Structure formats: structure tokens, C-alpha cells
Amino acid sequence: MKFGNVKNPEDIDFTLPADHPDTKRVLSANKSSLQTVSVGCAKWNKSDLKGFYPRGIKDELEYYATQFNSIELNATFYNLYKEDQILKWKERTPADFKFFPKLPRYVSHIKRLQEGYQDYLNDYLVGIQAFGEQLGMLFLQVHDNFGPKKENIDRLKNFIDQFPKDLPLAIELRHTDWFSDKGIADEIYQLFEKNNITNVLVDSAGRRDIMHMRLTTPTAFVRYVGANHESDYTRLDEWIERIKEWKEQGLQNLYFFIHQNIEKESPLLAATFIKKLNEAIGTDIKIPSLPEDAQVKLGI
């Protein structure tokens, strides 16, 4: 993923910001323990994850799903998939494997949440619901230049009002003004809380301005964007500590997806995160099989 890409990551202060004051309140209201931890990559194509697949593997998704418990499904951003294709993906994965589909760009980037997308979105959702119990959470990512003008706030509210309440939804806002203006930020956070919408967190080198650290549900949906730099691994250490704190405060679900500018390194980074997370909070997520040199680096 190129979002937030920088030429000199060594010059970036990657310190994880303090939590928004209301994050603890949201987590503390949850009385159940940690239920779901999903960790994965954003792609399963062999061309993107070179070196991850053993020689001779023909079904990449089937193998990927033996190594990870989830996938951030960006393919659904670009294309409208019918129920038969969704079922084919589902049938190639274990029953406990989860898909996290991105809502289509026709809705978010072409129509920009204006009226007229509903039929397209309905067709999209008919297909997506074929995932059944393997549907993790849908997420809407609006365009970087979709700022908090009144008309855009109204469009966002209308979208939320019309979206099916029985489908889990997260929203990713990218324009800095959603977060720099406290009044607007508080309005949106309250809107998300009221409608049980998860506030996506994106950690990337060049966009520290959108690290809001404000959870609006007891679910943390994190899109972690590495810089193909040694700091990618030390940054994960801070995330482990923060997740440990959130778990103690009442975190119910963790969805953590690894991206890289050069995606072939994503499996190693994800495996590192899983290993450290298991040690820190007592989860027992499978550590993906990796090439021998990567296993040595990871210490397994």
C-alpha cells in the first residue's frame, strides 16, 4: 500500500500517540473479555507475496488460509463480485477463516457518498452476504480529499442511516480536517458510537496526522502500513503494548492487517506481530510458515 509512503522513514517519529480520553470509556463499557483476534495481510496473490508460497502451490488462497486466520479483502473495492464468486472463495477456506471486504470505490470514490449509489451497493451486499459466518467486518474508506464540509458530513450521515444495521461496519476517514477540528471530530466520534461503527486506525509513515487513537466500539480495526524499514518491527512493539492495555480495559475484538510498500515482506512482518502478540496477551494464533531465512530472523 502506497498510502503514507515516504522516502526517508528514518526521519519519522513513529511514537504511538496517547489514547484519546474517550477510548478507555468505550472499552470499559464492554463487560465481555477478548473474543476475536484476526491478523492477516491485504493480498494473497503469489505475485505480491513472493517467497511466501512453497513451490508447487496452485491454490494460493487455500494455502494462505492455512497460515493466516483472515484477509483484508481489497479486491471488492475494485470489482463487484456475485454470490457464486464469494462462495468459491469461502469454500477454499476453513470455517473459522474471516474475510474483511472493503466497500466498493463506486460508492466511496466515484459517487463520493452522493445519492445514486444505493442500487450498486445493494447488489454488492447481496454477494458479500454469501460469506455468512465467515464475514468479519466490512469497511468503508473515503477518498483522501473527502473533507468535513457540511455536504460531506451530511452524505456520511445519510450513508450511515441507510446502511443495514445487521452488518458490522468500520469507516476510515483520511482527510486531516476530520481530526484536527475538535468539534468536527467529536461529532463524528459520537455518530460512530451511536451507530456502533468502528473507527479505523491507519498507522503509516507519512500520515501521523490521522493517528486519532479513538475507539468508538470495543473493536480495534488497525491497518498497519510498513515502510520496508527496520523501524517496522520496533513500531510493532509499541502496538503490542497498546493492545495489551486495551485488552485489560475491555477490548472485545482485534482486527490487525499488515501492509507494506513492497508487499512480499508482509508475511514476515505479520508473523513477527503474531509471535509477539501470543507472548504478550496469551493468544494462540498460528505463526505462519515462512522460508528458512525468515524463520531464523524471527527466531522460530
Please provide a written account of the structure.
By secondary structure, this protein is α/β, with parallel strands linked by helices. The protein has one domain (9-298): TIM Barrel. Helices cover 39% and strands 14% of the residues. It has twelve helices and nine strands. Strands 3-2-1-9-8-7 form a six-stranded parallel β-sheet. It comes from Fulvivirga imtechensis AK7. This is DUF72 domain-containing protein. InterPro entries: DUF72 (IPR002763), UPF0759_sf (IPR036520).
Structure, briefly:
By secondary structure, the protein is α/β, with parallel strands linked by helices. It has helices spanning 21-28, 60-67, 75-78, 83-91, 105-110, 118-128, 150-162, 177-180, 182-194, 231-249, 266-281, 292-298; strands at 36-41, 70-73, 98-101, 138-141, 169-172, 198-199, 201-203, 219-225, 253-259. It is globular and about 55 Å long.
Summarize the helices and strands and which ones pair or pack.
Blueprint: H1 21-28, E1 36-41, H2 60-67, E2 70-73, H3 75-78, H4 83-91, E3 98-101, H5 105-110, H6 118-128, E4 138-141, H7 150-162, E5 169-172, H8 177-180, H9 182-194, E6 198-199, E7 201-203, E8 219-225, H10 231-249, E9 253-259, H11 266-281, H12 292-298
Parallel strand pairs: 1-2, 1-9, 2-3, 4-5, 5-6, 7-8, 8-9
Helix pairs in contact: 10-11
Task: Write a concise keyword list for the protein shown above.
TIM Barrel; DUF72; 300 residues; 3-stranded parallel beta sheet; alpha/beta; 6-stranded parallel beta sheet; 9 strands; DUF72 domain-containing protein
What is the ordering of alpha helices and beta strands? HEHEHHEHHEHEHHEEEHEHH
CATH architectural group: Alpha-Beta Barrel
Computed structural class: alpha/beta
Q: What is the 3D shape?
A: globular
The third-level CATH topology is TIM Barrel
